[in-house]
Design brief:
Layout: E1 4-6, E2 13-15, H1 17-42, H2 51-73
Antiparallel strand pairs: 1-2
Helix pairs in contact: 1-2
Length: about 70
Amino acid sequence: MGSSERVKKSNRYQLTKRGIQVATFFTRSYARILRPGLAQITGQEWEECSPLRSSFDQLLRHIDQFVDHAKLAA
């Protein structure tokens, strides 16, 4: 069962029950997880006070080190 079904004799599609569930899941995930998380890792007011921001900054440092090392090895 797909997330949408074609309406007979037309060029339109209608969401199935599963499609509505998937759309709701992604909408809620964005609103409750991604948007607040992105605000913590990109906003200046969160510098030095958010565990998520500290982890993200550490990840960026490791990526930079990996890229620098890969340039030397190439």
